[in-house]
Amino acid sequence: MSADAAAVAAFAPAKINLALHVTGRRTDGYHLLDSLVVFADIGDRLDVALAEAPALTITGPKGAGLSAGPDNLCLRAAAFFSASARITLDKHLPAEAGIGGGSSDAAAVLRALSALTGRRVPPGSEALGADVPVCLAARATRMQGIGEALTPVAGLPPLHAVLVNPGVAVPTPEIFRRLDRRENLGLPVLPPLPDAAAVAGWLKATRNDLEPPALAIAPEIGAVLSALDSQPGCLLARMSGSGATCFGIFPDEDTAGKAALSLREAKPGWWTRPTTLT
Questions:
Q1: Which of 4, 15, 105, 195 is catalytic?
Q2: In this structure, is the dihedral angle defined by the CA atoms of residues 34, 39, 44 and 47, taken in order, positive or negative?
Q3: If you average pLDDT over every residue of the chain, what do you get?
Q4: How far is C-alpha 30 from the geometric centre of its chain's CA atoms?
Q5: Which one, 62, 82, 239, 272, has least CB within 10 Å?
């Protein structure tokens, strides 16, 4: 990370779709969603500083193979903010994994540039990606429309969870193309949910509509869901976003930690992380 005194450190947490209903499709092809989104306490880390010329350096265990060119969302976010920035991205989240990694990185850049300049983030950040507005908020949120209609969700308890990605690529456009049905009901009413068991109980009346087509493309997702579901204490196992990352919800931190350790031992090739979702 840069030691420049003018640099601002920013955190880009993993975004988890606890439920994701596809409710329609606009004439321009964009799908309408109704999703309950929370954020993990694990993610990527960035240093952002104003500079005469834009530059991006990518490090970290998940940085290999990522483009640092002008198409990278971090640099596109700086351009959207009308700023030239030097950015270091320490990449820990798997890319294209259904947990909003690129969008969360872009949102972190926008927050950092706002802190550096004293200017607000311009409206219209959904132009960078449908998940960028909710990642800017980085808190429990009901996300509707194409990602621009956000309603904060208060009172959701912290959720102890395990995130697992089997390391397979799942192309989002293909997932949406394979949907059997696009006109579905939105999420049910969200009642008071005092603990993880109550959250899991409510979630069982919801879905991730992208999970069936993702399973057809990447059967490994099914193996992850089965492995999570078989762990002692698992209250719910589901895929996040368009996959292939899946999450399991557990009643407490200790149970989640033991599940993560068990899964790491059984499947060392999987990316497995215990986390708290808020």
A1: 15
A2: positive
A3: 96
A4: 19
A5: 82
**C-alpha neighbours within 13 Å on the C-beta side of residue 79:** 13
DSSP assignment of 111-141 equals HHHHHHH-PPPPS-GGGG-TTHHHHHH-SSE
The residue length of the chain stands at: 278
Q: Active site includes 252?
A: no
Whether 28 is a known active-site residue: answer no
Please give the helix or strand (H or E) that residue 205 lies within, else none. none
> At 40, phi and psi to the nearest 5?
-85, 165
At 68, which amino acid appears? A
- The answer on pLDDT for 96 being more than 60 is yes
Could you report the per-residue pLDDT of 40-83, keeping only the tens digit for each?
Answer: 999 999 999 999 999 999 999 999 999 999 999 999 999 999 99
Provide long-range contacts, Cβ within 8 A and 24+ apart, for 203-207: 203/18, 203/19, 203/236, 203/238, 203/249, 204/236, 206/18, 206/19, 206/21, 206/36, 207/19, 207/20, 207/21
| SS3 (DSSP) at 239 | strand
Element (H, E) at 152: strand 149-152
Given a contact cutoff of 8 angstroms between Cβ atoms, the answer to whether 257 and 232 are in contact is no
pTM: 0.95
Q: Which of 34, 105, 131, 209 is catalytic?
A: 131
Two tokens, residue 186: 């939105």
Tokens coding 146: 């194409």
